[in-house]
Structures are given as structure tokens and as C-alpha cells.
């Protein structure tokens, strides 16, 4: 119960910070989002471009653990997984607050779950992320810091990215247990490497045991 309350308070705190205490919206925010979404990246800092696209990778990573976790939950995980593509941790935190520990997978894997469960998906995501990180490395750090301090969109997106990195280990232990992986050293290796750790995990984890209900 304390765990659920903690996630609920964290969600409320992040929500309050994003809309009350974060830097103000900029007049060109919607135009920037449109350009980022449509690939019109001319004159946009590569760091912003990389971060925006990495925020599209995180929901896939979370979906790869949420959908199998949800088979034994009272709540369905897919609305939260879908919403995370738009609002990131704002959608993940309510699920974490409502879910219960679950170390068992029962039933049969759907086509989507088979796709997300495949190590090939993890490898492809890892390649894409490495390319994005390399591209972002060419960006202007000072310019990004300036935008972080003055733009609500970039400020909150950056914090959202960090929060998604920190939250993943809260689902990792149960996902490992569902696959029969009992290795604390491996858990901490994955948990302590932001973004790339979860991607490595998706690339090497054993498949879910498929059982009839």
C-alpha cells in the first residue's frame, strides 16, 4: 500500500511541477512539436531531436514489460501503454500506483506480445537508440541548457526522460521472475544503466513461458 501511495504522490507531484513550477510555454512550442513530429528538423538542435525521438522509444520498452505484467492485474495495462506514447511517465506512474506485484505469466501470448517479447525487437531498438545518441552528441549543449531553462516543453520532456529511466527497475524484478531469471547482479546491471540497460535486457531476456489458462 505504501508503494502505491508513493507512486500516486510522485505522479501528483510531477503533474503539479509540470504545470505550475516549470518554465512557461513558448509561443513556438506547437510549431516545434509539429516540426519534430514531421521530420522537418532544419535549424533544430540535434539534442532536442534525439531526445524527442528517444521519448518515442521508451513507450515501446515499457510496453514490452507492461503487457505481460497486466495478465494478472485487475487493471488493463494497454491504455497506460498507449497513453505513454503521448505523455510518457504521466501515463506510466498511474499504472504503477494501481498495479500489484506479479511474478507469474499465464495464458497465451498475443501477436503483439510475441513481437514485444522477441529479442529481435530489443536489438532493433538498441540500434536505433545508439544512432540517436550518436546524432544527439553532435548537438549544442549550451543551447540545450538554455532551452531547458526557458521552455516548458523541453524542460518537462527532459525530466520525463529521466523519470522513465528511474522507474523502469520497479517493473524489472517482476518481469525477470516471470521468466525464471534469478540474478541480482544482472538486475542491478540493467537497473543502473539508463536506457541502454533496459534495451540490453530486452535483447537477452528469456521468452515468457506460454501456458494455457
How many extended strands? Answer: 0
Oligomer: single chain
Number of helices: 12
Given helix and strand content, the structural type is mainly alpha
Task: Summarize the helix and strand pattern as letters.
Answer: HHHHHHHHHHHH
The amount of helix comes to over 70%
- The pLDDT mean sits at 94
Question: Ranges with pLDDT <50 over ≥5 residues?
Answer: none
Q: What value does the Rg take, in angstroms?
A: 18 Å
Share of residues in strands: under 5%
* Largest beta-sheet details: none
Shape: globular
Rounded to the nearest angstrom, the distance between the terminal CA atoms is 28 Å
Quick gist of this model?
With 213 residues, the chain is an all-alpha fold. It is 71% helix and 0% strand. The chain is globular and about 50 Å long.
Can you describe what's shown?
Helix content is 71%, strand content 0%. It is built from 12 helices and no strands. The chain has helices at 2-21, 29-38, 46-69, 78-87, 89-98, 111-117, 119-136, 141-150, 152-167, 169-178, 184-191, 196-204. The relative contact order is 0.17.
